[in-house]
Amino acid sequence: MEVVPLVRDALAEIGVRYLFSQDAATLLPFASRLFWAREVLERPSRWVWPRWIPTPARHFRTRQQVAFTDALRPIVRRRRSSGRLGDDMLGQMLQPSSRYGLLSEEAVLDTLPGITVATFETPSRAAGWILLDLARHPQAADRVAAEAALLPTDPATTTSTHLDSLHYTQALVREVLRLHPPSWLLVRRATRPTQLADYTIDAGSTVLVCPYTAHRDAREHREPDQFQPERWLEDPGSPTKPGAFLSFGTGPHGCEGAALAMTMLTLLTAHTAHRYHLSEPPGPQPSYQVTTFGGLATTGLHLRATPRN
Ligand code: HEM
Fold this sequence. Notes:
This protein has 309 residues and is mainly alpha-helical. It is 50% helix and 9% strand.
């Protein structure tokens, strides 16, 4: 069975619950359909249609976006009218903030479909690479398993202290994200003429930043093509060196969900390695293919999971 769709379903449940707690069950099916609508849209096609043509894929995406918003609207209204805003991300958005004041209903409804899919779309791409690397580096997987033995048996009682103790597991997740950044190409438009090292960028130019190549630059990362989670233990300052680690982007539009993503991926890695030995199925067929549409991802990833004693 293919691994990533299973992981994505699990991460979707976590992500949607993080955003909507007791209303998650209502919204989860809409979130899954919205994800599929976006996937269909990103599939490579023989033709590039102008943006204004309502192709069936675009029409389907719009319908799913509207369906999600229609399901969310009564929840927002109920929470606002009852005054019980909720102890979750939606609850936070319904509180007035010093920066944005009180958000209008439309602002909340426009923002949340994208954020909802973001909680599991890119994390599941990252998870595919993590599970593949656990299979390919059994010694690293053993080290993660040993660390994970310190986690409580009941996952619901896991605290941030437990999470902070998973040093090697966090380093492994970072190393996978360095070698396989799901967002492998970032796009910026220069709003004014800008000098960048020896280059003059004209206003209005599009600038492409490639985390994939930056992460494999030997000036920043020793033996950059090698899988070495230890590098993040030896040099914990590296992730904060500007430009050295770009998996979550950087600057004012860097990833808003980096902490959530690291938490989900670290716990997923720890629990999986603790319970299973992963391996690639034997045989001449590769256990996966690579796609770059919508992000650097494994497709058709198949792994064998053998329970650890
Ligand atoms: C491994 C998982 C993830 C990766 C690799 C990732 C990566 C990124 C990157 C590279 C950007 C910046 C894009 C750019 O500069 O053009 C970004 C932006 C963003 N991410 Fe993530 N992300 C992940 C998970 C999440 C999660 C779990 C959320 C949940 C809320 C999230 C929400 C966002 C949002 C809202 C932005 C837009 C920020 C802005 O434009 O101000 N991401 N992400």
